[in-house]
Amino acid sequence: MTWINRFLFYFGITAILTGESITVMDSYNTLFGNQDPIHATPHITNLIRNGAQELSTNEKMDLAGLGLAVLGKNIVALAPVDLDQSYDTEHFRLFYTLDGYDSVENLEYVIQVGQVFEQVWTFYMDTLEFEPPPSDPDAAHDLYEVYLENLPTYYFGVTYTTNANISDPACVSYIRMRNNYSGNQFSNHTELENIKVTAVHEFFHSIQFGYNCFERLWLMEATAVWSEDELYNGINDHYRYMASWFSNPDKSIDDESSHMYGSFIYFQYIDEHLGGPGTIKACWDNSNSLASPVNDISVAAVDAALEPYNSSFEDAYIRMRIANRILSASENADPYSYNEADGYRTVVTGPPEQYLIFEQGNIETEQDQSLRLYESLYYSLTTESPVKIKLTKSDGEFSLSSIVKHQGTEQWTVRTGDELNIDPEIGIEWISLVVSSLGLDETNWDFTLQFKDGYSEDFTFFPPYPNPSYGNTVHIDLQVISEQTIHTKVYDLLGREMWSSSNHFSDPELVTLMWNGLNKEGRRVANGIYLIKLEGRSDQKSHRITLLKKSK
Asked: In the prediction, which pLDDT does 17 show?
């Protein structure tokens, strides 16, 4: 069996097992009917992976204009052969022409593109320490090939996989870039800015194809869009994906329509709160080691990357959904903050919500609510009295979180669980609830929300963070309702008191106490598990925390 047939066979099975939302006709219609600038790589890749069976004779003929050929049921990429000049940098060979339909304006444009690609190479290989994309064994050189052409009107660029004979799960690739970015469709940015975001985006695809040529398109696109701002912060071309993405929380995070571009926000959250860019690289390391031509391993790859941070795909997903509602850069929002939240707010205000009003003495029910896997629903809740919210699962697994914005201050209270109590006495600006569907082993996700009278809270002790601490100061968040003195003590597993603090509160207040990992004598305590105990006027509460020194 040839490479081309094996490639098609593999992805035909993968599409059945993973339920990819993007079809060959979806990709064809996007490639030939889109009226907005696009990165066309996922759609070209989808055609190459799944073949020409769904296409009519005329539609197959259209593919020639995209550098694709139909061979039987297969679709293969054909590199351009009519660019008569080349320019080499240290790592790239750029093909171009100064005459005809595909001509560039001048050699300076070619040099500029080459300089940008070398910046991109340094970013991925030297800073993030990715492996370079595989070389074409049939080429007479070891440079990565980039073709500068007159691409279809709305294309930023395309990365093509070839049928070069190399070992699974890698594919050889090449990139086609525009011969200019000066058209009105790209006028939101300068030509150089468009070159930059296109180069960093498309070259990440070439790296991804080297790591796992079978990987899901959503993971490829979400991380490629993430990379644009990681290297070229300030261009912010990726903001244009946010309005649609935030407006559709009931679309799965792995939806492979245009929604997948906006899923960069998931990896942005991971970058900022769960290990930095190295965690994104770990996702692709795991994608390589777990690569399968017949199974969707995208979630497993992210899961494994997050395990060192006491997190998981679903944990990060829940936290991101919370952060998307708070949408703040305030340090008080941590760990639900975004550094660029102020910029995000220029294009989005948060996800849409269903509005609910609770009145004391009533029992209200939101029945027969449904989601599909990794989708979410948001609710805006209004109440003047304590309310208890209960989530009842009919089918599937869920996460329920409440987000309370406190009146007149940049402070939020977040709780997660199947039963939550909210006491508005402390002063509330708004209350939001977010329900997310979880669990790869499930097939249906149906639930009911019940609202009934809650109770007034003396004080609330939220889980301390970060946990494990990894050398960071431990934050101890309290919500105090009634006047009292709160005594805070830290004990080791032998019951010895390590640290203590007492604080008096005269008015309802949300406050954060800090423990820097020192004992009462000012010496740093050993790595281990500690109990943080809080005692108030009529109640006491405790949480465990794992204290770990920062690794060298």
From this structure: 34
Q: Which residues fall within 8 angstroms of residue 391, CB to CB, at 6 or more apart?
A: 398, 400, 418, 419, 435, 447, 448, 449
Domains of the chain: residue spans and CATH: 14-343 (1.10.390), 353-453 (2.60.120.1050), 459-547 (2.60.40.2550)
State the Cα–Cα distance between residues 14 and 292, nearest whole angstrom: 9
In the sheet that 397-406 helps form, which strands lie side by side, from edge to edge? 354-357, 376-382, 428-438, 397-406, 412-416
- Residue 163 near residue 171, CB atoms below 8 Å: no
**For residue 21, pLDDT beyond 80:** no
The backbone torsions φ and ψ at residue 76, rounded to the nearest 5 degrees and listed phi first, read -125, 155
What amino acid occupies position 174? Y
Centroid of chain to Cα 505: 40
DSSP annotation of 184: G
Residue 2 clears pLDDT 50, i.e. is over it: no
Which tokens go with 472?
Answer: 């960071």
User: How many CB atoms within 10 Å of residue 11?
Assistant: 21
CB 545, CB 469: distance < 8 Å: yes
Peptide bond into 169 cis (omega under 30): yes
When pLDDT is cut at 50, 70 and 90, the band that residue 59 belongs to is: very high
Residue of 226, 240, 205, 296 lying closest to 13 (CA atoms): 296
Query: What is the Cα–Cα distance from 256 to 239, expressed in whole angstroms?
Result: 18
- Residues 454-501 pLDDT 10s: 988 778 888 898 888 888 899 998 888 888 899 999 999 888 899 999
* Average pLDDT value over all residues in the chain: 92
- Lowest pLDDT segment from 7-11, 154-158, 403-407: 7-11
Give me the residue label for tokens 């391993």. Answer: 297
Tell me, rounded to whole angstroms, the distance of Cα 360 from its chain centroid: 39
Per-residue HEC secondary structure of 230-251 comes to HHCCCCCHHHHHHHHHHCCCCC
Q: How far apart are CA 445 and CA 461, in angstroms?
A: 31
Three-state DSSP string of 406-443: ECCCCCEEEEECCEEEECHHHCEEEEEEEEEEECCCCC
d(CA 311, CA 260): 22
